[in-house]
Amino acid sequence: MSKKVTLQDIADALGLSRNTVSKAFNGKHLPEKTRTRIINKAIEMGYKELDKISNKHALLKNKRILLLTTKDLQQLNFFIDVIRGIEDLVNKYDLLLFQYYCKGIEEFEELKTYIETNQIDGILCIEVFDSAFINKLLSLELSVVFIDFVVDDQDIHGQYDVIMMENINAVKHLLIHLIKKHKMNKLGFVGDYNHCRGFYERFIGYKEALFSTGLPYVNAYNITKADDFPYGDPHSLSQEIQALKELPDCFVCANDFIAVSLINALSQLGIHVPKDIQVVGFDNSKEAKISNPPLTSIDVDKEELGREALIALLNRIKYQDHNNKYIYIKTAPIIRQSTKN
């Protein structure tokens, strides 16, 4: 068996430092002549990771990528930044980006025709969470990557990768910090945790924080109606809050969109945040920064999420038969005034 070629091997062959060689593979500044020497030497030596680097312009040029969604992303500010990250690499590598909005499985044949007509090489899915639809998509045997995914993937059949933000530990450790600091003992969750894997993992993080601090899980503190409930309507949420027999010390929300709506609902009821109840979101959206009060949340590098999703898709195009992968992007807590100082 031949020895695996490393970056150090390439550096030694060219008389360069490993750091310089690494720059050619991660998009850092280098004279173009030096970059070309390094890439050519890597190809010559059979460097097996060549297709996993972010700078592979010549190998990727003119790949036809479809950005597929089942929701209107222009109404979801979170994804505007994600798409910006995708477009950065599309422009850098001369890829061809197509966008398609498909309402659901009833429009699948039209989608299939569009894919065939435009000779799509790979599909990047955003807000695609219907298992039956996903299985039909994977039956086309194209390379597919999902940003977030269904809660239960046991019935999903095909080859794909999933890009996720880190949810469980991010929520867990933020809540443990707040529970200990403010001596809270009653926490509730707001949002449909079955909507997608990201929401479900945040719900698990909430439950793990309770377990780790010895607090009971009390379903009566939760508002977890199905996803078709109008979480964005403060009036509807206020009715659900009033139906609770007792308010928790803190509401943990599936995302910032729900959290901001919840703060408005609490305000309508004369319940002050954070004096009477604390509120935590997720995503660190633009709305989180300007809500009243500004929202404690968990920051996601949205542009990086988009870039990593596209890189994963390009790898999947090259190595379509590789095992399915889940890739997580690191997140970080942002403390603001919706929780107590």
Polypeptide structure, described:
The chain has 341 residues and is α/β, with parallel strands linked by helices. The strands form three sheets. The chain has a six-stranded parallel sheet with strand order 2-1-3-4-5-10, with helices on one face. A three-stranded parallel sheet has the order 6-7-8, with helices on both faces. It has a two-stranded antiparallel ribbon with strand order 9-11. The protein has 13 helices and eleven strands. Helix content is 42%, strand content 15%.
Key features?
11 strands, 3-stranded parallel β-sheet, 341 residues, 13 helices, 6-stranded parallel β-sheet, alpha/beta
Q: What is the gyration radius calculated from CA atoms? A: 23 Å
Encode the helix/strand succession as letters.
HHHHEHEHEHEEHEHHEHEHEHEE
| Sheet of most strands | 6 strands, parallel
Q: Ends: how far apart?
A: 60 Å
Count up the helices: 13
Helix content: 40-55%
Alpha-beta content class: alpha/beta
| Mean model confidence by pLDDT | 90
Question: Can you describe this structure in just a few lines?
Answer:
The protein is an alpha/beta fold. The chain contains 13 helices and eleven strands.
Please give the structural blueprint.
Blueprint: H1 7-14, H2 18-25, H3 32-45, H4 57-60, E1 64-69, H5 77-92, E2 96-101, H6 108-117, E3 122-126, H7 131-138, E4 143-147, E5 160-165, H8 168-182, E6 187-190, H9 197-212, H10 234-243, E7 250-253, H11 256-268, E8 278-280, H12 286-290, E9 297-300, H13 302-318, E10 325-329, E11 331-334
Parallel strand pairs: 1-2, 1-3, 3-4, 4-5, 5-10, 6-7, 7-8
Antiparallel strand pairs: 9-11
Helix pairs in contact: 1-2, 1-3, 2-3, 5-13, 8-9, 10-11
